[in-house]
Fold these 2 entries.
Entry 1:
Amino acid sequence: MEQATMATVSDGEGLSSCRQNRRQPPAVPTGYAEMIEAVRLLQDRIAAAAPDEELIAAVTRDLTHAAELLAPAEREEAFRISGFSEELPGNGSALIPLVWDVVSDASVRRGRVRFGSFHLGENGAAHGGTIPLLFDEVLGRFANSDGRASARTAYLHVDYRSVTPVEKDLEFVVRFEREEGRKRYMTGALRDGERVCAEVEGLFVQLRPGQP
Ligand SMILES: CCCCCCCCCCCCCCCC(=O)SCCNC(=O)CCNC(=O)[C@H](O)C(C)(C)COP(=O)(O)OP(=O)(O)OC[C@H]1O[C@@H](n2cnc3c(N)ncnc32)[C@H](O)[C@@H]1OP(=O)(O)O
């Protein structure tokens, strides 16, 4: 059985084993990014379509076939790629809205994001649940960056300032405000040009040794 490589850091507080759940970034096979891109396109097309019965039957048949092809390739979490590869757009997860052009220094991280038809709530606006999803991802990655021990989201306070459009490139900025012991305080904002769509404040708490 393949073994995961676990990273360990010394943080001087006896919490080094908190990184026990970390593993090396997975190798990404050729064509993997394109496969995830195809899933994103599929999600958006299904969300945008009103197909007739014949088309529904054909798509269901092909999707079932694709699921059967993938079944033998299923692996335990430590060996999976989707959602774990920072070299892929959206970390290779079709769940997370597509994030790209991420640039960062020690305290500020900026990037762009695009919600698709898959994320539509109503009237051209992204579903309210997709915005905390984005913030959890981008704040969480920043909170866990630079070799820090693993931290989980304790809370996310999201203010919806104006509608967040789908199918449009938006900008986000995330700030690593401060660390107090095991607590990491983050803030962020999502903008459509100059207009603020949503703001967030989040707390991430570093896990104790053995804490799941
Ligand atoms: C393995 C990890 C993944 C990382 C890998 C990285 C790889 C790549 C990045 C991935 C990017 C995506 C990152 C998404 C991260 C998730 O989404 S994680 C999933 C969602 N979150 C969860 O499931 C967390 C569930 N909750 C818990 O596990 C526990 O409640 C927590 C958050 C770990 C805290 O519990 P605890 O360790 O027992 O904390 P506790 O000792 O009671 O409190 C510690 C301090 O925090 C404060 N605190 C705790 N909770 C709260 C709260 N809700 N409000 C206010 N204060 C609080 C306490 O008051 C205390 O303060 P002080 O007294 O020290 O001043």
Note: The domain at 16-206 is CATH 3.10.129.10 (Thiol Ester Dehydrase; Chain A).
Entry 2:
Amino acid sequence: MKVAWAGSRETLELSDRMAKLVANDPVFEKFTRPMLGRKELFKNTLRKAAHGWKLIVDLRLTEEEAKWLRLYIDEPAYTDLHWGMFIPAIEGQGTEEQKKKWLPLAQKMKIIGCYAQTELGHGSNVQGLETTATFDPQADEFVIHSPTLTSSKWWPGGLGKASTHALVYARLIVGGEFHGVHGFIVQLRSLEDHSPLPGITVGDIGLKFGNGAYNTMDNGVLRFDHVRIPRNQMLMRVSQVTKEGKYMQSDVPRQLIYGTMVYVRQTIVVDASKALSRAVCIATRYSAVRRQFGSRNGGPETQVIDYKTQQSRLFPLLASAYAFRFVGEWLKWLYMDVKQRLEANDFSTLPEAHACTAGLKSLTTTATADGIEECRKLCGGHGYLVSSGLPELFAVYIPACTYEGDNVVLLLQVARFIVKTVSELGYKQPVGTTAYMGRVATLMQNNCAVRTAEDWLNPGAIVEAFEARAARMAVACGRQLAKFENPEEGFAELASDLVEASVAHCQLIVVSKFIEKLQQDIPGKGVKQSLEILCYVYALFLLHKHQGDFLAVGYLTPKQALLANDQLRTLYSKVRPNAIALVDSFNYTDHYLGSILGRYDGNVYPKLYEAAWEDPLNDSDVADGFHQYVQPILKQKLHSAKL
Ligand SMILES: CCCCCCCC/C=C\CCCCCCCCC/C=C/C(=O)SCCNC(=O)CCNC(=O)[C@H](O)C(C)(C)COP(=O)(O)OP(=O)(O)OC[C@H]1O[C@@H](n2cnc3c(N)ncnc32)[C@H](O)[C@@H]1OP(=O)(O)O
Ligand SMILES: Cc1cc2nc3c(=O)[nH]c(=O)nc-3n(C[C@H](O)[C@H](O)[C@H](O)COP(=O)(O)OP(=O)(O)OC[C@H]3O[C@@H](n4cnc5c(N)ncnc54)[C@H](O)[C@@H]3O)c2cc1C
């Protein structure tokens, strides 16, 4: 199962090597992180990033090894944005000449870049950004300016204190005409002493949610006062401005300016399975250690993992972690395919890639953020201790529901794609993830054939149920929309229904990709069978949770919904014997998990007890401040008995 989870034996061995490299290096210690003040915390992150880079250079790590190293260091840092957005943006939007100039500098870390798109006043609405880039033909330069307070760049990671350069998104003005938002490489700080260059005001935006957590990142604020940059620092693959001040658009679609977001959304889906599997690993191991009630004749109490309620909350999350792992694998393939096509100027699959990355980013991050919190509750009171690892994991993870596109805004993008597909059904055969809509007539007509709980153990029955629900919800939205004279007004009015239809479509993708995975050759005794059980758990759990949809569109009867739930209970009993093995298969070191509750050896209580004594409050028996603030209260003489 470890190989199935990792994707291949080579990846398992490689990632295992990187995990151990990090776990055995004292620089990467992270348990004191939530107790550090901001300055100390940030300096320590700089130290870790420098040490990580030294290891990459000294050990000549490959790009793949470096990615695993960054994952196991497990601390958000400016380098994420440098490697994860600044460099990919230049790769995707720069001309050959620009790539030749900037990529070697960035790849050798001679410059440090960030991705400065969001502003104080606008994040989701990219076309609403206010920063301007005005072309000055006399000087052959752009003048970058922040005309209002709300045009201040706000949020970019790595901007606050680390970056020397930023990829700034600004409205292009040429000859007094606006030409939409474009990307510009702007130097922010001196390469000698790191001080801000003239016309640049830059700093950190302040503390964020949770202790430690995302506060290792210097999310920044940035203002420009008529800062001049050479003309060739506008990324010009999509459109160009000539020396003479002529704006020209190439055959490349304008949406490619958003390409970096497509790339990062894809990586976020892959990372969702990592975050959720961590939380599930902690909660599963602890649920086997923890005992409450049920002792007979002085024997041991019941392990909480044996309670059906615990199983019905925990096992769907375990199944989701696997489901997200496999859909992430597929999405990576889809992205690589689109990337190759884009390089050959074939843009035909870009809308599908946008819809899939946006929708799956939204679906998986929402489920993961909710899932981590559920895992905390599954661990009872001890889950609330920082040493459980869950509070920091939650705090660091939840902004994923917002960054790289607010999850609702992204589902509305999926809705546009679905509505368009439905409206074109009469003359255009849908392909890819919307191919099922080509069978819409059958899906509208056929109802569920399930008669017994066992009938649900059939991939065909499951896929058809999810297809019918998604198709019927999409068609219902299409019909409702047709009643509006103005389609945009209709879209705004029906937005909540459209979001639900998008969720149904995205859930269908995840379920289908899990089932497709099971059609591949999966070596190892019992591995495929275990994955089949998890796949059914994932699908039937969703069906149970959203049974209102399946019933409302008239595909299922209440009896069939009940049978699905009966089958789900049986499946939980099948997961139980292998639950610990299924989380051990994630192959996480104790360092990476960062949790006393999730320790591999299960030695939870002695270690919790030991850790309590390490808290700085326990450095002395009598607390600092006792004599000043508590003792006077204890010693006071009160006049009124009521007080
Ligand atoms: C040695 C090696 C070492 C290696 C070490 C490796 C270490 C690291 C590696 C990797 C780490 C990666 C880690 C990443 C960390 C992530 C940290 C998070 C940081 C966060 C960053 C950010 O948040 S950046 C800012 C993100 N902002 C957003 O997402 C904004 C959301 N808004 C939008 O995307 C758009 O504005 C919106 C989609 C809402 C559309 O706007 P709108 O104005 O309505 O539409 P318009 O612009 O007119 O376009 C309409 C048209 O375009 C289509 N479309 C929209 N978006 C896209 C797209 N992205 N791609 C393709 N097409 C798109 C849309 O469908 C419409 O199409 P039509 O209907 O007209 O056909
Ligand atoms: C930790 C973190 C790191 C970040 N890093 C970066 C970075 O490196 N670079 C960068 O450029 N940006 C970064 N961002 C900014 C991030 O991309 C934006 O915050 C995000 O895109 C959401 O935009 P917003 O803040 O404008 O939200 P808003 O759009 O203001 O959302 C507020 C609410 O309005 C709703 N809403 C908005 N529009 C609509 C609509 N059309 N229909 C229905 N509801 C709507 C949303 O659903 C939400 O509930 C980061 C943000 C965070 C939190």
Note: The radius of gyration is 27 Å.
